[in-house]
Amino acid sequence: MRDAIGISAGVVDIHVVGNVLQIEVPDVADPLVQDEDGRLVVAASGSTMTDDDVRELRLGLQQR
């Protein structure tokens, strides 16, 4: 999955659990940022994925 979307190992771990993408932040020195609603989130990397991007990625991986 990481290879398919160009994410290298490091700050975030991504797991496919059934039909869910689970994103985990391991213990790292980089702090999380707080969004406008007060939730802790992973800082933006500059890359944006739309619903269509995720759908196409999942379909491509299912066809392997």
TrEMBL record:
Taxonomic classification: Bacteria, Bacillati, Actinomycetota, Actinomycetes, Micrococcales
Key words of the record: DNA-binding
Name of the protein: AbrB/MazE/SpoVT family DNA-binding domain-containing protein
Natural source organism: Microbacterium elymi
Molecular functions per Gene Ontology: DNA binding
